[in-house]
Amino acid sequence: RNNAIFKQYSDHLLDYLNQINFSPLSYKDQLISREQAQILGSIRRIIINMNLIIRVTDKGNNFYIGSAIEFEKKAQKFFFDTNAFVELSSNPFNEIFDKVVQL
Question: Superkingdom of the source (predicted)?
């Protein structure tokens, strides 16, 4: 009996999700989505043309927006000053993967 109830619930849920996801947008929502897509495209073109970089900061919900070249310089300076990171001469992924598979 429980299986029939779950099956019926599952069918109703699937119908509901299909109705929400596949029903056409209203004209107003179409205009809003088109406008948002145009704004997003404009922002992407500006980022590419001006060679900008956008990153989430360590501290939470803030973004760093700046020159990609300056960002790279600051990153290299940080790595050099802290000696916290070592550049690998080769990618060890395949070797590690093989060892894990052999376990």
Answer: Eukaryota
Both structure tokens of 48: 């590419």
Q: What are phi and psi of 77, to 5 degrees?
A: -65, -45
Q: What is the pTM of this model?
A: 0.52
Tell me if 96 is assigned to some domain.
Answer: yes
Cα 96 from Cα 89, distance rounded (Å): 15
Do β-strands 63-67 and 52-56 pair in parallel, antiparallel, or remain unpaired?
Answer: antiparallel
b/e for 46-69, b at 16 or more Cβ within 10 A? eeeeeebeeeeeeeeeeeeeeeee
The pLDDT tens digits of the residues spanning 10-51 come to 889 888 888 887 878 889 999 999 999 999 999 999 999 999
How far, in Å, CA of 37 to CA of 43, rounded?
Answer: 10
Q: How many domains does the chain have?
A: 1
Q: Is position 36 within any domain?
A: no
